[in-house]
Design goal:
Elements (H helix, E strand, L loop, with lengths): L2 E3 L6 E3 L1 E3 L4 H5 L2 H13 L4 E3 L8 H10 L8 E6 L12 H15 L4 E6 L8 H13 L3 E6 L4 H8 L7 E4 L14 H8 L2 E4 L39 H8 L2 H6 L4 H10 L4 E6 L4 H8 L8 H11 L6
Parallel strand pairs: 3-10, 4-5, 5-6, 6-7, 7-8, 8-9, 9-10
Antiparallel strand pairs: 1-2
Length: about 325
């Protein structure tokens, strides 16, 4: 496993990280989740990403129980705040940030998280208030660093201009061969400001592994076939997208890679990406994804990827 610096911080994260969005908030059984976390450590993964909103605390609770068996210094732990936790609890007000960090730490059974992220931008709270509260969380030692996910570029720029505030070290956007929107503005801004990307859905919710074939029903054990985990996957399983992904098969074979290795190595070809977050419901998936670390793609392979996907890419 290779490691990369997280922005301008001293934190080093594994190129492949373990996410828990749909899987560990109720999508898979407890024993499976535990086995996947063990597999992550075995594979050299040190970075685990979650959020308070995943299962309304269920993911954090499970991870807190599983991670209690590991030395705290052995892993880098990230969680998030913003989405609704109750009818009166959501957003990035100072009161919510302080309430939610304490609740997250209690569920995670730890005194601090390495990275505390704003899950989205809060239009209803002054930016100054949000940044001041995050700074207080860092000063109190409850979070080592802060990050944002899917913030508008102008709001990131405005936050960076505020004096005396904690500095972002990470951005968490959706990014994959199929979804390249961050390349336009987010990545250039972050490169200038010492902020790394930790990307979600680098496998296009599993579509880029090639498990979904055009004209065929999804495999029974797949995310698309699961009512609890098939959120947001419809666009990615449109026939034209699946047909384009099929054209990646010979590209992967020519490079002696699996489809998943090709997709993850493609994301990691970008120097501003510190880590690619993968979900896993089985230990073998963790090991298969971890094997993409350190793979370098040739210019010919990168060109073949672009040709295969053509106009299904979102930029």
């Amino acid at each position: 496993m290779n490691f990369r610096k997280l922005g301008s911080s001293g934190i080093e994260v594994s190129e492949i990280s373990l996410g828990s969005w749909l899987t560990y908030s109720g999508g898979v059984a407890r024993e499976q989740a535990e086995a996947c976390v063990r597999a992550a450590f075995d594979a050299g993964i040190n970075f685990i990403d979650t959020a308070n909103a995943y299962g309304k605390g269920a993911s954090e609770t499970l991870l807190g129980e599983v991670l209690a068996g590991y030395e705290r210094s052995e892993y880098v732990l990230a969680t998030k705040v913003y989405f609704e936790m109750s009818p009166t609890d959501r957003g990035l007000s100072a009161a919510q940030i302080h309430k939610q960090i304490d609740a997250s730490l209690k569920r995670l059974k730890t005194d601090y998280v390495d990275l505390y992220q704003c899950h989205r931008y809060d239009e209803d709270t002054p930016l100054q208030e949000t940044m001041a509260a995050l700074t207080e969380v860092v000063q109190a030692g409850k979070a080592r660093q802060i990050g944002f996910s899917e913030w508008p570029v102008d709001k990131v720029e405005a936050s960076l201009a505020l004096p005396g505030m904690a500095r972002w070290v990470s951005s968490q956007p959706q990014y994959s061969m199929l979804w390249r929107a961050p390349e336009a503005e987010v990545i250039p801004l972050c490169e200038r400001e010492g902020i790394s990307q930790i990307v979600w859905s680098p496998l296009g919710q599993g579509v880029l592994t090639g498990k979904y074939r055009p004209g065929e029903p999804p495999p029974q054990d797949s995310r698309a076939a699961s009512e609890s985990m098939n959120t947001f996957i419809d666009r990615l399983t449109e026939p034209r997208v699946l047909e384009a992904v099929e054209r990646l098969r010979p590209v992967a074979e020519q490079a002696a890679l699996t489809m998943a290795q090709l997709a993850l190595a493609w994301v990691l070809r970008e120097p501003n990406v510190a880590s690619a977050i993968v979900g896993a419901s089985r230990p073998e998936q963790v090991h298969a994804n971890a094997s993409a670390s350190g793979i370098e793609l040739s210019a010919e392979t990168l060109a073949a990827v672009d040709e295969a996907l053509g106009d299904v890419v979102v930029r």
